[in-house]
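Re: weekly structure request thread

Next one in the queue (271 aa):
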Amino acid sequence: KEQAGSLPDPVMIAADLHVHTTNSDGTLAPSAVVPAARAAGLSAVAVTDHDRLHPGLDAPVVERDGVTLVHGIELRVAAGDQRVDLLGYGARRTDALTAAVDRLQRDRMARGRAIVDLVEDRLGIDLDVTIEPGFGRPDVARAVAAHPDTDYDPKGVFVDLIGDGKPCYVARDVPSFDRGRSLLADACDLVGLAHPFRYDDPEAALALTEHLDAVERWYPYHHDVDPAPVDRAIATHDLVPTGGSDAHDETLGVAGLAQDAWESVRAVLDG
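Done, posted below.
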């Protein structure tokens, strides 16, 4: 599969290290990750569900049917004037991280209900959704798009209704950058910054990598980006470059790591 995103030249992707499942707000069942990876020609996948550990992975790295599965997590944190996402790879269940994600899931469910109520009131519809652990805004967007009385697609729901600052947006209670980094550092082999060019202030986000192990170098942005600032951060702070598709559906490998880059990550996880 060929690389999409911020690399100037296409390469063959071996590892997709940013994948979501139905354990959070994706549509891919955890049991379907390995078949989806094989269909995409991948040798490795990291399951990085939002604020949630994977219930079916009992080790930081496991091998299943010829695919390496990395137990990961994506954690949103507050960093100055913006919020950023941290990716932890090679996750283990520590008491502190378990307690933190339990609290975050309670907050996510309360926030999800508040967003659904606002959307239903604004559009005059009943979304008939179940608010459960892992529920997120993509679930709301899919429900609105599927409703027979709306003309929205999921992207339009974010643009008009539930994106940051939109009429039905509700903020979450998230840990500080220092607290989130500490939680992940104690539980994971590798902690990095996700998709640096998705934030309002990419420069400030990249400055945080001074305190991290890695940064997401390859990502399927919906606009052209110049990867030079990320490459400078990698060189300055001796970061491990990671990458992935941020898949919330069944298609993996849209972006990710070439074999040599994956071997560098695997060496850290095996260390």
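Residues 1-5 have pLDDT under 50 and may be disordered. Strands lie at 15-19, 44-47, 61-64, 67-79, 82-89, 190-193, 214-218, 240-243.
Next request, please.
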